[in-house]
Design a protein that fits this description.
seven-stranded mixed sheet, alpha+beta, single chain, globular, Neutral Protease, domain 2, 21 strands, 428 residues, Immunoglobulin-like
Length: 428
C-alpha cells in the first residue's frame, strides 16, 4: 500500500475496520473459498471451508459485521457466531474443518465499482471471508470465483477475475465463468486480495497486466521487468510467487499489494507508461519481498513492510533516473517527517501500542522507516548496507520477522554493534 494512498482523503483504503484482539490458536490453516459476486445487488455469496490443526479448546476467527453467516458446521465441536467473530469450541485436538455459508455486502475492504462494473477487495479479508487476520498467522488459500454472465457492450471487455497466487483451472459453468487461484505457500491473510472487472490482459513469461486498456502494456511490462531485476538483485533471493500480476482497475488512484499481485488504477498505468512515474509500481513490487516473502510477526514492526517498500521504490528511482531524483524523494520524506514531529505524531518504528492494522497503517512506518534505511545506508556505506539488506532478506525468506532480525543481519554484515543506532530510531 503506497504512502500517497494514506495521504489522500478520498482513498477508500484510509477507512479502517475494528479488529478483535483475540487471535485464533489454529495452526497450519488452509482456506477453501468459493465466491459468487452479484453486481446488481452488490453482494458476495460465499462457501468456505477452513481446515486447521489445533489442540482441544476454543478457537476464534474474525469477520466484519457485513458478513452474515447463514450456516456453520465444525467437526467434533460447537460453533458460535458473533458480530465480529466466529468461535469454535472443540472437544478434541487434531485436524478439523469448519464449513460456512454466508453473504458479504458493503464492508471496509470491499469496493464495488459504479455501474455494475465489478469489485475489488484489499487488505481486510475478513470483509469477504472468515479468517484469522493477525500477521503472526500464515495460511494457504484456494479461491474459486464464479463470474456471472454479463455480455459486454460492443467493443468492451468481458469480466475477468484476478487473485492471489497462481492462476489455475478455468471453466464455463451454469452459473458463470469459473477461475481458481491457488496460494500454496503460506502468507498472512491481509495479502489475499482479488478483483473482478471488465479487463483486457497482456501476459509474458513472468508478468501479467490486466487493465481496461492495455495499449500501454509494452512500456509498463518493460519498466516492471527493469524494477524486478533491480529488486531481485538487492534482495538476493527470489520472490515467493514466480509470476507477478498487476491489475489496473476503474476508479481513482490506489495501491494494494497481495501475494503475487498488486491492485492499482487505470490512471496509474497511464502515469507509468506515459509519464514514467515508476514509484507506485516499484513500491508495490517491492512488497513481493518485504511483505510477502518476508512477513512481519506483529503490527508493531509494520515498518519492515512499508518502510522497506517506500525506501526500495526510492532506491529504484535512483537507479532509473539518477542520484538527484533519489535526493529529491528523500527531501520530500524529511519534510513530511518534520510536519509529523511538529504535530506530535512521531513514534518509534517498533511501537508495541500498534496492536492492529487500524493503528499501524499511518505515515510513521512509511516515512520514518524509509528515512532510517537511508540513514543506515549513509552510516555504513553502500557496499556494506546492500550486503546487509541481502543477508536479511535471503536469510529470512518465507519466515516471519521482527526488527531484531533486521538489526542482527545489519550487524553481521557490518561487523559493528548497531544497538545505539537502532535504539534511537527503532525502539525509542
Amino acid at each position: 500500500m503506497p504512502l500517497r494512498s494514506l495521504l489522500s482523503t478520498g482513498s477508500w483504503y484510509c477507512i479502517f475496520c475494528t479488529f478483535s484482539v483475540l487471535a485464533a490458536a489454529a495452526q497450519s490453516t488452509h482456506y477453501s473459498v468459493k465466491l459468487a459476486p452479484d453486481f446488481e445487488r452488490q453482494l458476495l455469496r460465499g462457501d468456505e471451508t477452513i481446515e486447521f490443526q489445533v489442540e482441544a479448546g476454543a478457537v476464534e476467527w474474525q469477520k466484519q459485521a457485513g458478513l452474515h453467516v447463514l450456516s456453520a458446521d465444525v467437526t467434533a465441536g460447537e460453533v458460535t457466531v458473533a458480530e465480529h467473530a466466529v468461535r469454535v469450541r472443540l472437544r478434541s485436538g487434531g485436524r478439523h474443518s469448519l464449513k460456512l455459508k454466508y453473504t458479504a455486502a458493503a464492508g471496509r475492504g470491499i469496493r464495488w465499482f459504479a455501474d455494475r462494473a465489478g469489485l475489488a477487495t484489499a487488505f481486510y479479508c475478513e470483509a469477504w471471508m472468515v479468517c484469522d487476520n493477525s500477521p503472526g498467522q500464515r495460511a494457504t488459500l484456494q479461491l474459486e470465483i464464479a463470474v456471472p454472465f454479463t455480455p459486454p457492450a460492443r467493443g468492451a471487455n468481458g469480466f475477468r477475475a484476478v487473485g492471489p497466487g497462481r492462476r489455475g483451472k478455468e471453466w464455463h459453468g451454469r452459473d458463470g465463468d469459473h477461475v481458481v487461484f491457488e496460494q500454496s505457500d503460506p502468507v498472512q491473510t491481509y495479502l489475499l486480495s482479488f478483483a473482478v472487472a471488465r479487463l483486457a490482459v497482456a501476459v509474458d513469461d513472468r508478468f501479467s497486466i490486466y487493465a481496461q486498456r492495455v495499449d500501454a502494456h509494452k512500456a509498463a511490462l518493460a519498466k516492471t521487468a527493469d524494477a524486478y531485476a533491480f529488486l531481485r538483485a538487492v534482495a538476493s533471493v527470489d520472490m515467493m510467487n514466480s509470476h507477478y500480476t498487476q491489475a489496473f482497475l476503474p476508479g481513482p488512484s490506489m495501491g494494494q499489494e497481495a501475494a503475487g499481485m498488486a491492485l492499482m488504477s487505470q490512471d496509474d498505468l497511464a502515469d507509468l507508461a506515459a509519464k514514467d512515474d515508476v514509484q507506485l509500481m516499484a513500491h508495490e513490487l517491492a512488497h513481493q519481498w518485504w511483505g510477502v516473502t518476508l512477513g512481519i510477526r506483529s503490527w508493531s514492526d509494520f515498518w519492515l513492510n512499508e518502510g522497506f517498500a517506500e525506501f526500495m521504490s526510492d532506491a529504484y528511482i535512483e537507479k532509473h533516473r539518477g542520484r538527484a531524483a533519489y535526493d529529491q524523494q528523500l527531501t520530500e520524506l524529511r519534510e513530511r517527517m518534520r510536519k509529523l514531529r511538529e504535530a506530535g505524531k512521531d513514534r518509534p518504528l517498533h511501537w508495541e501500542k500498534w496492536k492492529d492494522a487500524h493503528e499501524a497503517l499511518g505515515p510513521i512506518p512509511y516515512v520514518k522507516g524509509a528515512l532510517f534505511l537511508d540513514r543506515l545506508r549513509m552510516e555504513l556505506g553502500d557496499e556494506v548496507f546492500w550486503q546487509g539488506i541481502a543477508l536479511y532478506t535471503s536469510g529470512n525468506a518465507r519466515r516471519l520477522v521482527d526488527s531484531r532480525d533486521f538489526e542482527q543481519a545489519m550487524e553481521k554484515a557490518s561487523g559493528r554493534d548497531l544497538r545505539m543506532l537502532f535504539d534511537e530510531a527503532v525502539y525509542h
